Sequence to fold (107 residues):
Amino acid sequence: MLGSPFAHGENIDVLMSQVFPKEQATYIGYESVEREDIPATTNIERKYLIVDFRFATGEPAEELLQASVHKVCMTLLRDQDLIRRLSQSGYDMVSVAFDRRSQFDCL
Fold:
């Protein structure tokens, strides 16, 4: 989980836990990741956020997966205050994961 630079982490937890009905997908949590492939000396932000979900029924059809990624991303994008806080905390990307193998970029 994130440390003090992202003091309103409970807000993202509340927002994400309401995206899907429990029988469709469960919000697991979020993780802050620092990209090691970008040198620390550059002006490019190295941090990104992964919001993690699991489907209740296992791996879904491709159409459901795409719709679910879109739903999560749009929920995040509509919360302008959250996006502003993420940006101020140095995050330049948010990704969605529904399993341990794949991530889908929102912004």
